[in-house]
Amino acid sequence: MVGQAIWSPAKRRPEGRRQGEAPTPLAWHNNHMSAAVLEIRDLSCRIGERWILRGINLEAREGETIVLLGRSGCGKTTLLKCVNGLVQPAGGEIRIEGRLSSDWDPIQLRRRIGYVIQDSGLFPHWTVAANVGLVPKLENWPLAAIEARVHELLERVGLAPAEFAQRYPRQLSGGQKQRVGIARALAADPPLLLLDEPFAALDPITRYELQMQFAALRAGVGKAALFVTHDVREALLLATRIVLLKDGMIDVVASPLDFRDARTSEARAFLASLNHGDEVPSNPAELPSSPVGQIE
Amino acid sequence: MNSRRAEILSLTLEHLWLVLIATGVAALVAIPGAIALTRRSGLRGAMLGVASILQTIPSLALFGFLLPLPFVGGIGRHTAIIALCLYALLPILRNTLVGILGVDPAVRESAVAMGMTPGQILWQVELPLAVPAILAGVRIATVATIGTATVAAAIGAGGLGVFIFRGIATVDSATVLAGAVPAAILALLADGGLEWIEKRLSPA
């Protein structure tokens, strides 16, 4: 614990303006400005005898959204869980903010990584405000700072604080729950977000709304995000880079524009599902164009 | 008539005392025990098995078994309390386990992923969400113990069973009822009261 105190998240977050803010963390931050928030080198993972992931190399920088695209069982969720230590890799290395994941205290590391999952995983016995304020509370922020942060985040994800802060998750719709889940992930201002099919369980209209809002939010906060989905449309819409996984290995890495020209059979299969499954829009090339402009 | 009333009251209090101590001790053992078992899936089956077997032993026989044992046995209240306690273990143990293991995996996963420590997850997430199940277990145990405790009079532990055994011996159904009716009322009150607490303490 002592070794981490120097640059503990509490001192780096903007709200934590405590007296005697040490220059060290800021200097540290500047030195790594250009470095990747997340670096994965030759990562492998297996459960029993079965290899889930092999030879994964990946990098995510500030402001980037890496979409991990793949069929069910391709290892994309496992890859996500390797990053925050929910799953132990068999080999390779993961660096977060330049530091080996094995050198992090797992608890501290997870508080530096926002996490959003499909079922939202909100605590049913806590109000929306308490759910959003979870990590700041774990990090012992002053109450007033937590309250202000919760207020700010609820507004940012499009939920009026006056109306929603004191509700319980069971009083929310699926889309509202996911908004709260995103607000919770952003609460302690983590540099890295992990999102595991966050919009998969929503109706198509709400999903589109949240995708748009996520794109806008991401543009505003400049975080690195690792976004898991099996929906190629979502990948084209949100990714700065698409990483297609097949049987635990990287099949294609491409920008959304280049992805449409990818020649592997897996990429073709995904693109074919897009062409045949969707009537509107008829031309998928129009999909990723400036989504931010279409919000609200 | 007045002395009968006074006896009913004092035996009812004695009965209540037996039940409170027995279920209280059982809860103090079973709840932490169940929490420990949620962390060790290997032991879980074995412990639930032991508790289940204990519960299948007829109560009169269990009192009989305990009587000759040194320290825990002998005529009197403490033997009865030990036996009642053993009976109360299972429902509390099982319900606590079910309550904690029944927490939505997505909730537990996000608690871990948000950087909560195991202790924080237990106290802030798992236990609050398991409260209704745990209290339901305590309620079942309490109501059952109120009934079983009437048998404790057979080994001199007192309580409302005293009337029942006396009434049987003298073939006097009024005396039997003097024990049975207050015991039934106690059980109903305990059931209702604990149900109320359960509702009050349940997470929103």
Characterise the protein shown here.
The complex is a heterodimer of chains A (296) and B (204). Chain A is an alpha/beta fold and 296 residues long. Chain A has a domain at 25-112 and 190-286: Rossmann fold. In chain A, the strands form two sheets. Chain A has a six-stranded mixed beta sheet, sandwiched between helices. Chain A has a four-stranded antiparallel beta sheet with strand order 2-1-4-5, with helices on one face. The longest helix of chain A has 18 residues, at 204-221. The model of chain A is unreliable at 1-34 and 279-296 (pLDDT under 50). Chain A has 14 helices and ten strands. With 204 residues, chain B is an all-alpha fold. Chain B has eight helices and no strands. Chain B has helices spanning 2-39, 41-56, 59-66, 77-101, 105-113, 118-148, 161-169, 173-201. In chain B, helix 1 (2-39) packs across helix 4. Chain B is elongated and about 65 Å long. The N and C termini of chain B lie far apart (49 Å). Chain A binds chain B through residues 84, 86, 107-111, 113, 115, 117-125, 134-135, 138, 168, 170, 184, 194, and chain B through 104, 106-107, 109-117, 120, 125, 128-129, 203-204.
How would you summarize this macromolecular structure in one to three sentences?
By secondary structure, chain A is an alpha/beta fold.
